[in-house]
Structure formats: structure tokens, C-alpha cells
Specification:
The protein has 212 residues and is mainly alpha-helical. The chain is 63% helix and 4% strand. It is built from 10 helices and 4 strands. The protein is elongated and about 60 Å long. 28% of the residues are buried.
Length: 212
């Protein structure tokens, strides 16, 4: 790496690390280098590069964190892509990973709600619950008509989590339910990495450049 590139990365890391919780400046530098590596072959193609596109980001979720549910991977992409431009920028990558890997319960509640709010209207509707639960449970069901079982599950979930009884989950409903019972954090499917995946990713991402 040229000294100019190294200086640019250090300056960017200095700026981002002041705004992102849970990572120190050295770790942010490592994440920027990793991001640049993931972007490398796209940049080399000569096309204008804005960040990681949906396909490339989903392949990271699948290959690195073992995620397989297309609907939820799209939700994770939306949760990272804060400005909705269709790309995850280096800043969005670092900010998103800080919650994804090391977030507090409060941060993870907000993140999971954003993933599960499929149409971005600020609520998780019965229809959205149905689609997510069907997606994550259909492989485990052997019934002739799994839809009926999933509809029952949606009703049970609404009854448990819908505190204001309007037939859908607001952020306040979701937050209250998860604080009372933490296991409900990923009620509609896996959208956070497990401890083993986090450990492996951090060991690879945060080793010194000379060790790679």
C-alpha cells in the first residue's frame, strides 16, 4: 500500500471512529481496508463505484455469517444502507458492523425492527410477519397446508407483542416485548450473527496487516 493510501485510510478512520461506537481507530482502519479489498475488483473494472451493492453485500452475509434467507438478507442490506441509495458506503459498512457485531440490546432492537419492517412504513404488519415466518419455517414443516400453521403463529405473536392492540407492531411494541423477553429479538428470523461467526470475522478482520 502506498504511503498516500495509508494516510488517506488513517484520516478516514480518524473521522469515522469519532462517530461510530464499539470500534477503536485501529479497528476502523482494518474495516476500511477490508471494505476496500471487497471493492477491489469492482474498482479495477473501471466502473464508477459507490459502495457495496446488494448482491455483493448479500454474498458477504451468506459466505461469512452463514445467512441463507433472501428476504432477511435484503432487510439487513436496507438496515445498513441508511441513505437508501442502493449501496453500502464505507461509513455505512463501519456503522452497520458496529451494531451487527457489538451492538447493545437497545441498538439491536432498533436494527432488528428495521430489518423486519419490510416496506419501511414504521410497522411490522401481519402480512410481513407471515412472509418472514413462512420463509424461515417452511423447510421445517411437513403439513399439507403449512400456511394455516403460520397464520396461527402470526396470531400468537401479535397477541404476545402488540401492546397497543392495533393489529400490527410499532417500534414501541417491539421494543417493549423484547425487553420483557430477550429471545423475541429475532422472532421473525435470524438477522444477527452468532458468537462463533463474530469471533471468526473479528479475528480475520482485526489482525495486523503484516499477519495477513
Amino acid at each position: 500500500m502506498s504511503s498516500l493510501n495509508r494516510k488517506l485510510i488513517q484520516n478516514l478512520a480518524e473521522t469515522i471512529s469519532k462517530q461510530v461506537k464499539h470500534f477503536n481507530k485501529t479497528e476502523v482502519e482494518c474495516l476500511i481496508r477490508l471494505f476496500n479489498g471487497l471493492m477491489g475488483d469492482v474498482a479495477a473494472s473501471g466502473r464508477a463505484v459507490h459502495g457495496l451493492d446488494r448482491g455483493r453485500f448479500r454474498s458477504i452475509l451468506h459466505n461469512t455469517f452463514g445467512m441463507t434467507d433472501d428476504m432477511l438478507m435484503d432487510g439487513v442490506f436496507r438496515a445498513f444502507d441508511k441513505d437508501n441509495d442502493g449501496f453500502v458506503s464505507v461509513r455505512e459498512w463501519t456503522e452497520g458492523l458496529s451494531v451487527f457485531l457489538r451492538g447493545t440490546l437497545a441498538e439491536k432492537i432498533k436494527y432488528c425492527f428495521d430489518v423486519y419492517d419490510l416496506n419501511g412504513d414504521g410497522f411490522i404488519s401481519r402480512e410481513e410477519m407471515f412472509h418472514m415466518l413462512k420463509n424461515s419455517l417452511i423447510r421445517q414443516m411437513t403439513e399439507e397446508d403449512p400456511d394455516e400453521g403460520i397464520k396461527d403463529l402470526v396470531e400468537i405473536t401479535v397477541k404476545k407483542m402488540d401492546h397497543d392492540h392495533d393489529g400490527r407492531l410499532s417500534f414501541i411494541d417491539f421494543e417493549k416485548a423484547v425487553k420483557e423477553e430477550n429471545l423475541l429479538l429475532e422472532a421473525f428470523g435470524t438477522c444477527l450473527p452468532d458468537a462463533k461467526s463474530i469471533l471468526v470475522f473479528e479475528q480475520q478482520a482485526f489482525q495486523a496487516p503484516s499477519e495477513r
